[in-house]
Amino acid sequence: MKILIADDDPVSRRLLQSYLQKWGYEVTVAVNGADAWQRFEQGDFSIVISDWMMPEMDGRELIRRIRASTRPNYVYAILLTSRSQKEDLVEGMDAGADDFVGKPFLAEELRVRLRAGERIVKLEQALAEQNRELRAAQESLQKAADRPGG
Amino acid sequence: MPTPTADTPNGKPDPREKALRINIDRGRYGAFAEIGAGQEVVRWFFQVGGAAGTIAKSISAYDMTISDTYYGTCERYVCRARLQSMLDFEFEGTVRPLDAARGATTAFFAFADTVSARNYKGTNECHGWLGVKFQAHPRAAASQVLIHVRMLDAENAQQQEALGIVGVNLLYGAFFHHHEPEHLLDSLLDSLTVQRLEIDMVEFSGAAFRAVDNRVMSLKLVQLGLSNAAMFAADGTVLQPSEVLYKKPILVERGSFRPVTRVHLDMHRCAREQFLQEPAVRGEAVVQLMELTMHSLMVAGELDYQDFLARADLLAAEGMTVLISNYFEYYRLAAYLARYTKKQIGIVMGLPTLREMFDEKFYTQLEGGILESFGRLFKNDLKLYIYPLLDPATGDLTAVQNLEVSPKLRKLYGYLVDSRCIEQLNNFDDRCLSIFTPDVLRKIAASDPAWEEMVPPGVAAVIKARGYFGYRGGPPA
């Protein structure tokens, strides 16, 4: 599964990349929000982990753009933030984040949250596939019904 | 009149006995010059009797203009330079007129102090400089001992009394223990306690102290409990802490530096770069210190002076100013530094030390435990700069961002990171992460030349030239 990391802090980036690769994910790193958006548009990512505070484009704006994009597949978005106040959480969720991981983070906590994200992405993919199949079956039925004598 | 007693380890003479012994020694004759806390030292010599045999002159030039007439102009009156000009002036002023008449049988001396004792409102820093310039023997080249004291008594009268006693101790030590500088040092607080007076700098110089290494004396100040900290520069000059630290931002790295390695210097470089970006530090002259605690100087439970000098030489090779302290706990180090400056303080440490700081077992002696410790540590805008740790076995990096602390301390840790009291160093040199000091020592002992890549070239050169840490030459045949 492909994950995009957006963080302007080099040590955080390095730690996240190292954990994620160890856990078997395919990782792309971006050094700020604008860089992340550019990479997102070029790639096919299932999960995005983004720092909240970044230069050029912050994490909320990045996630807003991801949600507004016309990409067919669901992207699971995790905001990585040192902020812990409730209003920030609401603001982040409002922007479209699925989950939060606080900084400093625990590797194990990140791993289980990613697993949860992965499950949701897979469910979304399965659902999308089922919808596609349903639509195809519907179309076949419709075509059969539209046929003369059908 | 008391009878002078023998100065034995079990029977230390009191100031009265010391002053009397000096007075009845016909071979000592000199001048006293005191500014700032009365004439408390010379008073002892007048009181015990027989002063005429010791005192050629006693002066207290209180008026600044009068003082300048004698000793020259100066910016501050309570400083080392003023003390030195007083000593030089009074010593020359004693020897020149008297040498012809009695120089063959008299060892001349000049004693001086310049002091800021407690003012009426109690708003000033109570400290002073004391010194004696003397001939160890008649017509010997001059020798000198300078000390800086912090006067901790609450009342001016008590401070004056303590000053008088330490002055007598200094003279007595210089005259009768100059051949044993360690004993001299140890005797400076006879009849006093460190609660009353702290001696945070001592400097020996001149003919009688040719063999004295002032860095070792600085160490002994702390070891003997005369002070909790002492400092010296890369060239070995002893420094008086307030003259170095006063109103300056300070960056300090604690370590055993046995020996100083590339990683120590990389830690310092990274921290300096980040510290200089702090808005409160930008454009300021930062004092950079390498701190050795007494704890880290113990090798197999003993203080090894040669080992200490080896470490000091290597730090000197890198141009570092050294702080020796007895402050095992970081909050005590912070309080010590904050005594001299309200500017920002940065402490550089490795990740393992930060991990230890979040171990509650270190705070059992504090009523408020870890919270009290951190409360004391992080006041005055202090910041910890953390160097990451690489696990050589797994290749895993541990940094501030992923350090695991006890679950009940996680919120506190998060708060301190959030508030930027704890900051990760992010400009480190990856090549330094795999350097560990014990490996360097092992490789030196095993004549494995790989150690040379682990220390700066200047440090490697000194280790090789002086055979430090068991260095025996190249690789085994």
TrEMBL record, chain A:
Query: Which Pfam families does the UniProt record give?
Result: Response_reg
InterPro entries recorded: CheY-like_superfamily, Sig_transdc_resp-reg_receiver, WalR-like
Q: Which residues are modified to 4-aspartylphosphate?
A: D51
Full protein name:
Response regulator
Does tRNA processing appear among the keywords? Answer: no
Domain named Response regulatory: which ranges?
2-118
Listed GO molecular functions? phosphorelay response regulator activity; transcription cis-regulatory region binding
Which terms are listed as keywords in the entry? Coiled coil, DNA-binding, Phosphoprotein, Transcription, Transcription regulation, Two-component regulatory system
GO CC field: cytosol; protein-DNA complex
Q: Which GO terms describe its biological process?
A: regulation of DNA-templated transcription
Is this entry keyworded Transcription?
A: yes
Where, if anywhere, are coiled coils annotated?
113-147
UniProtKB/TrEMBL annotation, chain B:
Source organism (scientific name): Limnoglobus roseus
- Which domain of life does the UniProt lineage start with? Bacteria
Protein name (Swiss-Prot/TrEMBL): TonB-dependent receptor
